[in-house]
Structures are given as structure tokens and as C-alpha cells.
Amino acid sequence: MCSWKKNVREVVPYVPGEQPKQANVLKLNTNENPYPPAPEVMDAITLVSREDLSRYPDPDCTALREAIGKQYGFTKNEVFVGVGSDEVLSTAFLTFFASDTPILYPDITYEFYPVWANLYGIPFRCPKVDENFRIHKEDYYQKNGGIVIPNPNAPTSIGEPLDFVEDILQHNPDSVVIIDEAYADFSGVSALPLVKKYDNLLVTQTFSKSRSLAGMRIGYAIGQPELIAAMSAVRNSINSYTMNHYALAAGKAAVEADDYFRENVRKICSTREQTAERLRSLGFRFPDSRTNFFFAEHERVPARQLFEDLRKAGILVRYFDRPRVNNRLRITVGTPEQMDRLCQFLEEYLKKN
Ligand code: PMP
């Protein structure tokens, strides 16, 4: 064996959903928004000049942090921005989870959490969600080195009310509690109103879903200034310029386009409710979704078979080959036309299978 190989860090990376190269694929596998971002976003991008590109971007991301803060009633010092909420969450893990006591997160949740924990050598313990995929708050009363919970949870699509989050905060004054709100705009429940009250709460959100900017990679965290300063120090120990000129401009324009954003979310929630009815009438079972996706099993056809046959028909959904979830598909809510194509295929398919 070459001598350098023993020095290579061993990791088990996260595997993102497929981004197909061919045209005409119905892409319902990564919870992207089916609508384009607000027109103002394109206008803002075109204002980035050639001269801008020869200069480093603002390392403090001042304008974007101020714009996000203004939208939600916070100052710049309460806002951290990063390259998608993945980078924000990764930075938060590295910053706040330095204890020898295991951190806690649900056993069925976002698959990136164990990846970061292993990468950074963070011990973790995963309380089991129940047979209906519900998280039990009492499981988070035990001693821990930190807590991270998505609300709504992914891939289950289940949202918990605000008093659930507050109860966990009240029981854990000595831990940083991260609430990953990647899908909260589709549930209408956010822990942001608790930020002023709890100095150990960090809320993360993203522009990838409800603001149609998955391709631009923008996420943020909101918390009290001490938390944000600690994250910034860690970020500045790795890379001072994570957000480029385009992302800074696009993010500011997107967060200011509030009417567009609200209408976009409304359309997706309305399509979600209509599609839920159709899928249930086709024999699918799933929890009430508070997100832009369903976590569905079929009463007869195994999920793996459905996943493969949908794929052959040019319809991509997500399948997780893991215990407890391996008979489920995660299906993103698209436009009404896209949901028609999905349901029409399924109607025909289920007559024959
Ligand atoms: N949290 C959860 C629960 C997610 O499902 C995702 C999307 N894969 C993210 C965070 C990260 O999204 P992004 O990096 O695009 O902001």
C-alpha cells in the first residue's frame, strides 16, 4: 500500500439525489421548487459587473444579512449566511458540538447529520421516531452535547407545533438546539419568534426550496449575536469568502420579493393538497405533509419496484434503502401539470401491477 494512503481521512459521504442529464425527465427527487425565482433575482444578477468579478466579494455578506434580518425582524448580527443550509448546518455542527457527550437527533431524519458528525468526530445518539414517524419530545430530556431537529422533519414531512420546540428548549438550557427549517415555509410554523427568548436556539433556513434558488446555494441561520459570532469565527477559520457576488445579489433580491415568495408557497401548498387526495385514492398512504414532498408507501406495490418503474418512465423520485423507510418514496410536489403526469402514469401502472 502507498505510504500516503494510511493518512487519508476516511469518510462516508452524503449521496445527493440524481441530477439527470437527459431532457424531459420529471424531476421529483430533490424537493426543488418547480417555479423559477422572482424576476427581480435575474435583474439583480445582471447588475454584477466584470469589475466586480475581479474583486473578492464582501466577506461579511453585509447587504444580504441585513436584507434577511429586515425581513424577519433581526439585525445583521443575528444572521449568518452560507452556501446552502448544508454549509450553514455543517458550520453549526463544527462550532457548537464540541462536547464528548453525544448530540441527539431523530433516527429517521436528514441523512447529512451522521455524515457531519462522523467527519467532525462528534458522538451522537438517535432517539427513535415512533411507528407513525413522530418525534417524542421526552426523548430529548436526556443529557446531551447538543440537539438538531428538522421541523418539519425530512423525509417524513411531519411538522410539530411551536410548543414542541419550546418544550425542548426549556429542557435543554445548556445545549445549543438547532432547528433545521428547510421546509418551514410550507408548514407555516417557525421557531424564529423564540430566538429573542432563548440564547441557545439556532434556526436554519434555505433559499433552495420556497425561494426557488437551489441552483444558487444560499442558506442562513438566525440566532442571538453570540451564536452567530461563534459560527463566523469558525467559518473564518476555513474560508473567508463563501458567498460569491452572484449569490449575494440573488439572495438579497429574492428575500425582498416578498409577494412573489408568498404566492409561490401558496401555489405549492395548494397543489400539495390536491395531489394528496389523488395519491390516496390510488392506494398510497403517507403522513399529512407540512412540506413540499410526500413520504408515501403503496398498499400493494413495493416502493423499490415503484421507484425503478417510475424511473424507466422518466419520473424521478427518491428512494432510501434503509431500515424502517425502505418501503417509502419521497415525492416532491411539482406544478399541477407535473402532478398530472405523475398521477396519470400511476393510474395506468397500477391497473397492470
Ligand atoms: N435540511 C434538510 C432537512 C434538507 O432536506 C435539506 C435539503 N437537502 C437541507 C437542509 C439543505 O438544503 P440546502 O443546502 O439546499 O439549503
Explain this structure to me?
The chain is α/β, with parallel strands linked by helices and 353 residues long. It folds into 2 domains: 17-36 and 259-352, Aspartate Aminotransferase, domain 1 (Alpha-Beta Complex), CATH 3.90.1150; 39-256, Type I PLP-dependent aspartate aminotransferase-like (Major domain) (Aspartate Aminotransferase, domain 2, 3-Layer(aba) Sandwich). Helices cover 37% and strands 12% of the residues. It contains 11 helices and 13 strands. It has helices at residues 39-46, 50-53, 62-72, 84-96, 112-120, 162-171, 225-235, 245-256, 258-281, 303-312, 336-352; strands at residues 26-27, 79-82, 103-104, 124-125, 147-150, 177-180, 201-206, 219-222, 284-285, 293-298, 315-316, 318-319, 329-332. Helix 4 crosses helix 5 (112-120) and helix 4 (84-96) packs across helix 7. It binds 4'-deoxy-4'-aminopyridoxal-5'-phosphate. 4'-deoxy-4'-aminopyridoxal-5'-phosphate is lined by residues 84-86, 110, 150, 154, 180, 182, 206, 208, 214, 219. The site of 4'-deoxy-4'-aminopyridoxal-5'-phosphate (PMP) has 12 residues, from helix 4.
